[in-house]
Amino acid sequence: MKKYKIVKKIIEKEELVKVTCDFCGSEFNESFIHYKAFGKINITFGYSSKYDFRTFEGEICDSCFEKLFKSKLRGHMWN
Ligand SMILES: [Zn+2]
Hints:
The structure is a single chain. The chain is α+β, with helices and mostly antiparallel strands and about 80 residues long. The chain has helices at about 30-35, 60-70, and strands at about 40-45, 55-60. The chain has two helices and two strands. It has a two-stranded antiparallel sheet with strand order 1-2. The radius of gyration is 20 Å and the shape is elongated.
């Protein structure tokens, strides 16, 4: 037999409240943050490269992506 009692607990959790573009510093609006609509950069180098197994991460706005990466990278639709 199990017996339970009701307890009230305060649970703390992280909430994302501010995100900025790592290239131009512009701040994404609340809607972009809610839907995680900002670009995410993740570059990983392999063994024996100058950056041996290191990963670089960051956030990027649409404008900086178009200026710096769009024409140089392969794109895929997520569906
Ligand atoms: Zn930017």
